[in-house]
Specification:
Elements: E1 5-8, H1 12-19, E2 23-26, H2 32-37, E3 45-48, E4 58-59, E5 64-68, H3 73-78, H4 80-85, H5 87-94, H6 99-104, H7 107-112, H8 118-121, H9 160-167, E6 171-176, E7 179-184, H10 185-194, E8 207-214, E9 219-225, E10 236-245, E11 248-257, H11 267-273, H12 280-291, H13 303-317
Helix pairs in contact: 5-9, 11-12, 12-13
Bound molecules: flavin-adenine dinucleotide and iron/sulfur cluster.
Length: about 325
Amino acid sequence: MKSFAYASARSVDSAQQMVGDNGQYLAGGNDLLGLLKEYLVDPKILVNIKSIPGMDKIEPSGKVWNIGALVTVAQIESDPGIKKTFPGLAQAAADVGSQQIRNVASVGGNLAQHSRCWYFRHRDVLCLKKEGDMCYARHGENKFHSLFTGNNCISPVVSNLAIAFAALDAVAVVQREGQPVRMTMAELYAKAFDNPTAHNSLNPGDLILKVEVPVTRTHSAYLQTSEKHEFDWALVSCAAAAKVADGKLSQARVALGSISPVPHQVKGANDFLEGKTLDDATASQAADLILKNAKPHGHNDYKIPMAHAMIRRTLLKLNG
Ligand SMILES: Cc1cc2nc3c(=O)[nH]c(=O)nc-3n(C[C@H](O)[C@H](O)[C@H](O)COP(=O)(O)OP(=O)(O)OC[C@H]3O[C@@H](n4cnc5c(N)ncnc54)[C@H](O)[C@@H]3O)c2cc1C
Ligand code: SF4
């Protein structure tokens, strides 16, 4: 690990002033410390943001809940209000890593975590994401990689919370150049879809303040499949949310993780579900639409039938 300066911020303004263009924010440190130890990032200063007051609160309301960027994943998992109002989000949190990780991992850090691609994580491999000239996964070991992408990097988004937030139409509020900017989950990752060096759409110095979650959808669900039950990322994850009245869906959203650099959503599938009563055939047709243009790379072919099954199962959970 290279040497760096360290400071604790007392406010959003002071955090942004101290971090500048060459610093990194430190929240729970789950991801950042690994990146430092492997020489994958080289910040001149680490700015501890856990000392900023007021960013660790879950604030319920009738229309939009505010979830601070320093709320831990464990808080989301165990909050009785979240379990009742956004059960899909509570489940996504419960499936993160292990209890020890969830206890310290923050919402902001979970959303801003870097690629888990094993070529990226190897300090000696200079792939496209590190401004090298090739993607080693495309013709190499790609069993964990994307079925969709807009560039030559096929590393997928693996944040559980991003997938659940996407299905709930949640918005991240990001402090950028002194102003709050609101970004949908699609916008928060759009740059990673288009640009191989990006992990997300945050600029240097951008600070996620909170996530706003609308209470529009009465039902939500989340499922993931991993190689290990604990301490592992999803091979495929799926979140669904909708209003359900008299057995019919409205404003349905389905989002998938670990198959694209953005939470994968297909508007045509969401539209198809409008006014439908959910049964296996309907869920299966939605899954067909969502996966229609999937492009596997050999070792990750299995993700197509896996994702199909997970979409069906997650949607059918909305009936419960
Ligand atoms: C073994 C293991 C298994 C895991 N399994 C899963 C899993 O299944 N699902 C899953 O979703 N995650 C998983 N994780 C990832 C873990 O959830 C994230 O590493 C963690 O959430 C990061 O949060 P943190 O607060 O520790 O972030 P940090 O490590 O402190 O920060 C991570 C990154 O986010 C930036 N950052 C932090 N806060 C902000 C902010 N407010 N605004 C802007 N940038 C910010 C930091 O500068 C850094 O670049 C796993 C991790 C491990 C080690
Ligand atoms: S998938 Fe992306 S991160 Fe992985 S080797 Fe290819 S360019 Fe690098």
